[in-house]
Amino acid sequence: MIEQRETISIGEWKVLSHTGTLRTCGLGSCVCVVLYDDTHMHAGMVHIMLPDSKQARKTAFNPWRYADTALTLLHRELVNQGAGNLQAKIAGGAQMFRHAMRQEYMQIGRRNVEAVTQWLENAYIPVVAKDVGGACGRTVEFTLPTFVMHVRTASKTIKQI
């Protein structure tokens, strides 16, 4: 059987069951969230760009770009497929523009991580591992059935979480 490999871009998502790899790259201030159920072997990944959909332009609105709407939709999809005991792993949320550190609205990475963390806490989904913050971009791969997330930074370090 050929392993399923899915690549996710900004504002996209994918769900796998039983076996396969979910991958996203180009995480700067964006946050990758993986929700998974290790009992029923389901996992979903989303590449979130911004923390809050309430400030989105209504034209060409993509709910998968925003933490609040993307996580609600991903959670619903996984539950519909039979997932129950969900856990989360997150990566990303870097501060890519050092000169903008003093401006709250430019701290998108930190705000994304806060929004994701708050949503997961409100949904009673534990974050079992994370690699967030810093000033370096990331590429993430999550593999079923091992539930291992590999995080590679632009500086070529690789973490397994």
UniProtKB/TrEMBL annotation:
Transmembrane segments: none annotated. One of its GO terms (biological process) is chemotaxis. One of its GO terms (molecular function) is protein-glutamine glutaminase activity. SUPFAM superfamilies: CNF1/YfiH-like putative cysteine hydrolases. It catalyses: L-glutaminyl-[protein] + H2O = L-glutamyl-[protein] + NH4(+). Its EC number is 3.5.1.44. It is an enzyme of class 3 (hydrolase). It holds the Pfam family CheD. InterPro entries: CheD-like_sf, Chemorcpt_Glu_NH3ase_CheD, Cytotoxic_necrot_fac-like_cat. Keywords: Chemotaxis, Hydrolase. Probably deamidates glutamine residues to glutamate on methyl-accepting chemotaxis receptors (MCPs), playing an important role in chemotaxis. Belongs to the CheD family. This is Probable chemoreceptor glutamine deamidase CheD. The gene is cheD.
